[in-house]
Amino acid sequence: MLKSALSIALKPKPMSENREQKPGRHAGLGMLIISFALGLGLLTLFFDDMLERQFNPNQRPNTQALQNGGFELALQRNRQGHYVMSGDISEEPATFLLDTGATDVVIPAELANRAGLQPGQAMRAMTANGPVTVYTTTIPILHLGDITLYDVRASINPAMQGDTVLLGMSALRHVEFSQRADTLTLRMVP
């Protein structure tokens, strides 16, 4: 009796029983792959957002209204020691890197095109990467938080990539700015 019970337990299952289990195994494997891909996608989004906040800690700059009708904006330094903030050029979103060493606001050509800026006279400019040809332009309206600047002199640089704009002195001369520790305060006084 023990021998017959053992032979029944060790007897291979018929092929029809194995076929019935395969669709379930394939569905389970498919769900595992989909779950892994979704998890990987969510982790990518999380870390991409974290890296963007490290590069630009001022994505939603906090502007305070002053009693005299002006505005004050406090910016935090990023991990590389730069002041970077979000804003827009003629309603087109942009990321500004404040650069007191730049004479003008310098805009990548692709962003300038989306913002509807017209290239003017060609000029040679000296950059950290050497001389480049840039084109003069004027930004009709530039927003830094609630600070609004009008008719700002700028240069379009076809060699620049991305949406990061160098916010040079042609814009910064219209605001007061002061630095204390890791905070740069911009103040627009009417």
What does this structure look like?
- This protein is α+β, with helices and mostly antiparallel strands.
- The chain folds into two domains: 13-55; 63-188, Acid Proteases (Cathepsin D, subunit A, domain 1, Beta Barrel), CATH 2.40.70.10.
- 32% of the residues lie in helices and 38% in strands.
- The chain contains four helices and eleven strands; from the N terminus they run ααβββββαββββαββ.
- The strands form two sheets. Strands 3, 4, 5, 6, 7, 8 and 9 form a seven-stranded mixed beta sheet that branches.
- A hairpin with a 2-residue loop joins strand 7 and strand 8 (147-157).
- The mean pLDDT is 82.
Sum this structure up briefly.
By secondary structure, the chain is α+β, with helices and mostly antiparallel strands.
Q: Give me the CATH architecture of the largest domain, please.
A: Beta Barrel
CATH topology of the largest domain: Cathepsin D, subunit A, domain 1
Helical run tally: 4
- How many strands in all? 11
Whole-number count of domains: 2
Shape: extended
Instruction: Output the CATH homologous superfamily of the largest domain.
Output: Acid Proteases
The description of the largest β-sheet is: 7 strands, mixed
- Percent of sequence in beta strands: 35-45%
Helicity, as a percent range: 25-40%
Integer-rounded radius of gyration: 29 Å
